Amino acid sequence: MIFWKIAKNEKMFRRYLAALFLWEWTQWMLVTAIPLFLHQRYGLGKEFVFSIVIELLPGILLGPIIGSWIDRWGAKRVTTLDIAAYSILVTLLPLSSSLWQVQLILLGIGIAKTAGSPASLTLRARVIPKGLEIQGNAAIMGIERLCKIIGPLAASMAILVFGIGTMLLLCSFAGLAAFALFYMLPAAESQKQAENENGFTKAIFSALPAFFGLLSRDRMIAAFVVTAIGYSLLLGMLKIFLLSLAGLYGDPQQYWGLLLAAQGLGSLAGALVCDRVVNRLTRTYSLTWVYFLFGLGEAVLLTGLAFPLGLTWTLFVLVLAAVFEIVATIIYFSVIQTRIPYEQQGLFNSMTLPVLDTCYAAGIMLSGALLSTLPIFSVLLVCLGFMLVTHLPFARLFFRDRAAEASTGSE
């Protein structure tokens, strides 16, 4: 497999994958545990929804600043600071006794993630070997999705054996170990201090015009951003939908992790076959058209969840839909990394992620509101509609484009 060839020949990429594996595993355990922690204390009411959303608020409010932070201090440094802060704050959750304390801790975690997410994506662009964007992103996404399988399962088992409090403490220790691995990563930092000394405030206020200029110069990038918005809305609504669905099958603490693991299994399978599938399809179609088809394919497959045919059927649909999702995601990052210069990727990531976080939060709140008035499966159809609305207007653009395919070197 080409994955092993890249990992064998590229030392920095190999070390990055090792650090990423440990951190992603830790994060997916926390993705499983924190909603269960909130659900256990507050149920699925407004306290739960607002506590989930408050973690996303820093990303919405501070996003334009993060690009200048990445330029000023480097993607690796910002990523490691995020991991350290996240890992320390997690230990405080089980010690909290009031709702405001929980929300304050989640707000702090949100601030760390606001800086860490775009920095991590920017660092990824530096460690992936040139010309191997599809293969490199497939390897990274494969590890992320493998952790999406083992993380929720490990979290569910640890919660049953040790309890949520002890499990959160174990995640904190694992996170600090991941911090050490990222800190030792031999990734050279970009040097932009001289530019930033001319005016830190100026860099902040110049972010928006620079970002919109980037979108206006390349309609394909703008189209990718809009489709990502639709996917973020779907993801937010699907989170609450799956948690409610887990309650229909029995104990949410058991079935929530199982549903997430099914998505992870499908994503892992998709990452393993992505390179071969993309290479075969791009002999006939543009890379962007393959992205479009797989994005809509995921939405079509998820409609299968509207048929209450039992747990086995639900797991099958989630696995199959996740295969389509991961292929589309790998193409998304590969095209973005090749069409946008590395020097502008910190800006792009710091501007798009707050927008996507906003849509994700909107999806969570909308799903929570609709569940109180509509049947659970009607809510699913509403959220899938957002994928159609944000994808279909760009069908002709994606079909015609051949430049992205050539620039990614996917042949």
TrEMBL record:
Q: Which UniProt keyword terms apply here? A: Cell membrane, Membrane, Transmembrane, Transmembrane helix, Transport
* Location in or out of the cell: Cell membrane
Question: An example Gene Ontology cellular component term from the record?
Answer: plasma membrane
One Pfam family, short name please? MFS_1
- What residue intervals traverse the membrane? 16-38, 50-71, 83-112, 158-185, 221-249, 255-274, 286-307, 313-335, 347-370, 376-399
The Gene Ontology terms for molecular function here are: transmembrane transporter activity
**Coiled-coil intervals, chain numbering:** none
Q: Which domain of life is it from?
A: Bacteria
The Major facilitator superfamily (MFS) profile domain covers which part of the protein? Answer: 1-189
Q: Is the Cell membrane keyword given for this protein?
A: yes
The cross-references to InterPro entries, in alphabetical order and at most eight, read: MFS, MFS_dom, MFS_trans_sf
Q: Is Disulfide bond one of the keywords UniProt gives this record?
A: no
Lipid bilayer topology:
Multi-pass membrane protein
Write the protein's name.
Answer: Macrolide-efflux protein
Originating organism: Brevibacillus borstelensis AK1
